[in-house]
TrEMBL record:
GO molecular function: 4 iron, 4 sulfur cluster binding; metal ion binding
Gene Ontology terms: cellular component: plasma membrane
Entries under InterPro entries matching the protein: 4Fe4S_Fe-S-bd, 4Fe4S_Fe_S_CS, Electron_Trans/Redox
UniProt KW GTP-binding keyword: no
Keyword annotations of the record: 4Fe-4S, Electron transport, Iron, Iron-sulfur, Membrane, Metal-binding, Transmembrane, Transmembrane helix, Transport
Record-given protein name: 4Fe-4S binding domain-containing protein
PANTHER family: FERREDOXIN-TYPE PROTEIN NAPH (PTHR30176)
Residues annotated as domain 4Fe-4S ferredoxin-type: 378-406, 410-438
Transmembrane segments: 51-71, 92-111, 145-165, 177-198, 232-255, 295-312, 332-351
Entry annotated with the keyword Chloroplast: no
Amino acid sequence: MDFSSDLTLSRPPVPETSATEKTLLTAVGLGLLALLTVAFDADAGRARLSFWLGLLLLSGGTLGWAWYKFGRQPAGVQHNNLWLRGSTSRGSVAWLTAVVLTGFYVVLYWFSNDDGQGNFGPLNQLVHALEPASQALRHRPSDQWFLYGTFYTLAVLVMGGRALWKYRHSPYQRIRTVSVMFFQLGVAFLLPGLLLAFQKPEYYFSYFWPLKYEYLFPGTVDYLLKDGGPGLGVFLVFWSAVMSLVATPVLTYFFGKRWYCSWVCGCGGLAETAGDPYRHLSDKSRTAWRWEVRIIYPILAFIVLLTALLWLGASGAVPALQPITEPLAKAYGFAIGAVFSGVVGVGFYPLMGNRVWCRFGCPMAAYLGLLQKHFSRFRISTNGGQCISCGNCSNVCEMGIDVKQYAQRGEPIIRASCVGCGLCSTACPRGVLNLENGPREGRYQVSQLIHADSLRILN
């Protein structure tokens, strides 16, 4: 007996796309097409016009679609057939998106270097289309990294607008989204450009060791002191050391790793905005967790060892280290800084979720995670007596944590991987989950006490 037709009929239907939504998505598609034509247009003036028209259509269409999709319906986290759509359930659209993103990173990293004559390969016309903007901000010619920074910042801002519409009912999510938008635009894009305009070192204040691993390398320290001058150079080195070794542990003690991973970091900012449609795709199996531990902590150990070896090599105390430290640093930059954080970390959003890099490769996440788990006041408390096992919390967890299992047992969530995005609490219809920075005493027992009090009241 053939049950295939019955199974097909039993599936919840995906709502039809309205004419307005199709029009807005068409604007997004035309924007992408306009950007694609720039790469093949030999006329510089026309290419520049197409470039800015493409960005306008892409940004306007996305923001208009976000308003239409989320602004016209009741506030609240709604899953909107995520597992039925090809774009968000590892379907054909998701695979196509992953191929395009991965391809862009491959071209950016390995086929777009300046040939010495201002030619940037396949991205040449796109790079030169930003020449006026680069000159205005940085007083220097555009390059592939300025192009990438522009695209990156625009993605955070535009998709941040989408997140503000989607999570407008939650003050925590609104403030957190504005925070990552501010740090990306102001601190990670405009401020480094202004430093270059004043003939100072290009420096990113929102990144530090071990994420920006080279900031404590001897060569970088010498560069900052030399080009930054006696005032700014010393301050930049001081900032790197204090933020890496003092401020980070202190802030993590009080607020957990969320102060950085969900509020400041540009990688986290892109994940929370552009990667938000894919957060439910994170693997929550124990196998994935085991691989997470096997990969991320050795990467942290390697960068600690590499930093120590570079300092020893630079000091001259161990002359034999000097020939091997530079190749080690280049190998790390290629494997972790380019392949893992860029090609895999962003390119695989549509297939593995939006925090692949943060879960498996980021040394900063590993460092903060150890501090959070063993020395922080931060926790997510749960009230098992109120949990209805709907699974919304687990579905929105981008770090692969099966939150529902903790909520059902009334156990606090104290995990090294948790970035404190708060979406589990935002998505909970019963208010079971709460982000807290309570005292360390009773950190592991507070939720059980709440659960016991709830049962006592019910009885």
